[in-house]
Backbone:
């Protein structure tokens, strides 16, 4: 919402954050002068590199494609391998000894049970009603 102060840096910052998150936003301009609203609309589109979609009354609609997120790369340079390192604690049976700490690599399709075992994740069960 743009108030009586007009297009301030704070408004531009919030509009930019909303465009990054959603891509399509609506902005309401509180003012009766149509020429000023059109000027604000043009300035918003220029400064945020957004496309003007619609201007109905006091409502402005802007669109900008959402930037794709950077995929994280592994140590080997491969993308999305899904390998993560987990620490397993195994406590001694008598209770007075030190716990045994073991680092284990778990792949994307594996899980660690409460007992410290590594198991493959269960396959997703699909509904029998939707198979038809």
Residues:
């Amino acid at each position: 919402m743009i108030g009586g102060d007009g297009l301030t840096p704070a408004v531009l910052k919030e509009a930019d954050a909303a465009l990054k998150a959603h891509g399509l936003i609506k902005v309401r301009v509180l003012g009766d002068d149509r020429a000023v609203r059109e000027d604000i609309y043009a300035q918003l589109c220029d400064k945020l590199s957004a496309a003007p979609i619609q201007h109905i009354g006091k409502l402005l609609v802007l669109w900008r494609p959402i930037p794709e997120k950077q995929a994280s790369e592994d140590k080997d340079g491969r993308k999305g391998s899904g390998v993560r390192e987990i620490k397993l604690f195994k406590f001694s049976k008598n209770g007075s000894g030190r716990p045994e700490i073991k680092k284990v690599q778990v792949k994307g399709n594996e899980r660690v049970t409460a007992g410290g075992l590594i198991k493959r994740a269960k396959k997703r069960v699909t509904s029998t009603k939707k198979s038809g």
Q: What stands out?
A: The first strand starts at residue 24 and ends at 28.
